[in-house]
Hints:
By secondary structure, the protein is mainly beta.
Amino acid sequence: xxxxxxxxxxxxxxxxxxxxxxxxxxxxxxxxxxxxxxxxxxxxxxxxxxxxxxxxxxxxxxxxxxxxxxxxxxxxxxxxxxxxxxxxxxxxxxxxxxxxxxxxxxxxxxxxxxxxxxxxxxxxxxxxxxxxxxx
Length: 135
């Protein structure tokens, strides 16, 4: 399921110098499932298509399956570092998250994802209001 498209107001690309973007995921409501549910989170990126819209998205980072026992509100946020571009790779302009449930279904739970540019802002991410809803 994908979150609602949210405009950041600026193009973070691959960051500035040492401040590469990181995706930070915080469990707001503990997950429950009918079985031993797992959640895999993918970070996708796309270049501008030349008309100011998203080009083709590709997965740039992905977690392994996160067990139900690790989807508990109040735990430390999960930080997914976004790798630097390799020579010849296209600069991304758009990012999105994809959440895949396996051995579910999940019966409750809420997770918030943010893209941040510097490690100190990870602590501040906890105070941001939710900026999208996973469906």
